[in-house]
Each structure stands twice: as C-alpha cells, then as structure tokens.
Structure prediction request, 294 residues.
Amino acid sequence: MNRINGHTSLLGLLGYPVAHTLSPLIHNSLAEYYGDDLVYLPFEVKEEDLENAVKGAFSLGIRGLNCTVPHKSAVTEYLERIDPMAEAIGAVNTLVRGEKGYIGYNTDHLGLLEAMRREDIPVEGEKVLILGAGGAARAVAAMCASQHAGRIVIANRSLEKAEALAEMAGKLGDVPAEGVRFTGLYEKLEGAEWLAIQCTSVGLAPDDDGCILTGENKRVFSLIHTGVDLIYKPAETVFLRQLRQDGKKTMNGARMLLYQGVIAYEMWKGIWNGQISTEQKILDEIFANLDKES
Prediction:
C-alpha cells in the first residue's frame, strides 16, 4: 500500500452484490506482474444508481471498469460506444476509457472459449444446452454460435427471453437454435449427449444450496455428458456436484473468470491483439490463488 501515490490509477468492478468477487485478486496480481501503478477495487452499485456510477467514474478519471450481475445489459445505455460483438451479444462486461466516455466490450465469450479449450471441452458440432437467458447467457450463446455448435437450446423461465436469445444466436452463427421453458425440459431435449452451460445465479454464494435443475428437471442430468457452471464461488455448485457424482466431466467458472479478466486487463493496457500475452506461469499462479479462495 505504500506505493499508492498521486499517480496511481484506479480500476474497478460494478455489480450488486460484489462482496464475493475474486476479480481484485486477478487484476491486482496482474498489476504487480506488469509493474503497473494501479489498484483494482469492487464497487457495489444498485441498478437505480448505475447511470450515476458510470458517469461519475468517468468524471473521476477511473481508467477502466468491469461490469457483472445485474448490469451487463443495462450499462450499454451509458457508454460512448460499443464494440460490434458486444452489441450483437447485447451485454458488456468491460469498459475501456475513451475520449468522451467508456467504450464497451465483452470478454466473457473470449474467456469462456479460452477456458474450455484448455480444459479440452469442444463446442464445434456439439448439442449445447444453455441454462438461463440473461447477460452471461448471451455471451455464451454468441460463443457457441461463433464456434459452430451443432444445435443450441436455451432454457429459461421466460420463454420470450429464451426465444429472443435463440434468434440472436441463430443469426450470429447460422446455427439451429431454439428457446424453451424449463417446464418439461427433459422431453424437449430428445436424447442424451448434451454439453450444458449453467448461466444463472442459482447456486451462487451465499445461497449455494440452490440448483437450476429441480423437481422433474432432475432427469435432465442423465442427458448431459459435460457440465460447465459460470459460477466460481463455491468452486463446486450443486449442479456440478450432481454431474461429478454421475461420472460426468465438469468445469466451474474460475478459469473463465481468469481469462476474461486477463483479456480485459490487456485491453486496458492497450496490448490485447486477439491472443493472451501474459506469461503462462503467471496465469497458473493466479489460478492457483483463485482455487484457494473459491
């Protein structure tokens, strides 16, 4: 803390709640690695305060921001401009300082793709079940469409939201995509061998005893060969625990969190060129610390 001075830059995270976040561990570790004079802090911002928070952050000279639940879609209204992919997704998680305001990007789809590649979880040709249709699910659907999934089914409590997201995914990647309600989900999936990606906040600490697949939908577990949960705290949600106990492959959101964060940091530094530049040994060290904290 003795290094903080009048030249220290500030980065941060906008969300509600944010007390559980591990993002400061990632970005402050990267600042130390690169020797950058900056600090990353979480800011708990309610939905009704988001506009003031974004505009105030820019006025205060905050160098860059991340956005998490529930702000990834709403924040787009308060930006100077939005990257085309983020605009197609309809959700932003990274704000880079521009001349008159922040420029919005989405690094979630890039981070998830990188994490799944490193865990040897392919998307191309796969039948993908996306659970949820919020901001995180939009990034997942875009990633799956751009990576040529064989089929995409989006399950959500609101059929309208699920269908709208399926339409976006279908146009983005020319992939068969449909939106369905959670009710009767087992019958709608027509057989086994699905890659399931859990994109809701159900199971997120401190309410970590929840699971998106309950009641009659518990049968859906038998149709899944690999499960990915974007939640990283707890490290193993009820959703992932059930799949692991059934002998299925699983991955939590910690590596996605790491890689989307590294990409955001490299954007703030102006060194992002489509591939992560940060040394692998540093990535491994940060991930090990994330694993301890999860």
In short: The first helix runs from residue 23 to 34. The radius of gyration is 19 Å. The chain has ten helices and twelve strands. The CA atoms of residues 239 and 245 lie 10 Å apart.
